[in-house]
Amino acid sequence: MLTPIHKLIEIEHLLNKSKKDNSKLLDYRITLRLNLDIDISILLKERDSTILSELERKLKNQKVHLDTITLSDCKTDEFYDYLFSQEKNPNLINLLNKRRYDYLADYENT
Known about the structure:
By secondary structure, the chain is an alpha/beta fold. The protein has helices at about 1-20, 50-60, 70-75, 80-85, 100-110; strands spanning about 25-30, 40-45, 65-70, 95. It has one domain: Beta Polymerase, domain 2, CATH 3.30.460.
């Protein structure tokens, strides 16, 4: 289990650096799946293929799924709004190994 933890920390450092270097990257959430794949959801001011390409290049050959969300997506989709809410979902990294539908169930109960 240490290898996935090290990989999560490495990805967190990469995203923090990208966040400092690029003002379009606002926030992110990292989730470790049961099969040890990693889901990354990044919040952008607007769609930017440069940021996405750079992250995909740096995360190449890894079991990582990258999902980009914009501020306008958060305004129109309550799930994304919940996902990036500092009050309701403050953790940047989720190690609970819950399935995605469990998040939806948790969201409905809040």
